[in-house]
Amino acid sequence: MVNVNGVDLCADSFGDPGDPTLLLIMGSAASMDWWETELCERLAAGSRHVVRYDARDTGRSVTYEPGKPTYTGADLVADIIGVLDAFGVERGHLVGESSGGALAQVAALDHPNRVASLTLIATSPAGPAPDLPPMTADAAARFSGIGTPDWSDRQAVVDYIVASARACASPTVPFDEAAARELAAAVVERTTNVESSFTNHDLIDGTDPWRDRLGDLAAPALVIHGTDDPVFPLGHGQALAREIPGAKLLVLEGVGHEHPRRAWDRIVPAVLEHTAG
Hints:
two-stranded antiparallel ribbon; alpha/beta; globular
């Protein structure tokens, strides 16, 4: 546990603290468990100090009453810098996925002296925008059909997480339900308040729009995006790569709104190469 901006967050690290630090930032309602241990170990084996953490209301970090979060998106951005401080990191390489990638972009814009590079996975430069493709109709139908579980029923929550993961995954590749169920069970086991975890992030005020500031980003950026992302279709990643100066784009065929194990052989070397400077 580390104290960050007056609250307690749960964090974990791998590798030598003397190596360059990769700070892994997961998306909405997602604990650090979604950065699987083996993935972190593979990154650390490339001479990286890897840090992952539970954002507010996820995992074992500080939790708030369901439906009544008292923090904002700006607080979550400040927490990124606070976690770097807690680990004594002057400049870190931020790796953000989904809404965690959005937070990483804002952190790099607001604190350029603290961010050595950005890796942006399955994320977007903005909220809904007329020039960016919307969530696919099939995905919207899958999400709307999931419903809300009885948060006191552990098995119902596991089923809910698995269904959500299936909705995010590529529809063109067989879904690994056994792995998803194992991870979902671990998430439920570690989470202090699952109702808050899967409710409160959707209720907080977001950060101010930042897309028109992307041209000011000084940190080198690597954009990783799947061809089958149903939540943020590929056009979102392409827009990021186009609007961030010098950004590189890695397109993953047959990958959805996820970083599945079958894609690690491409993701890990790309991240290590990008953060080698």
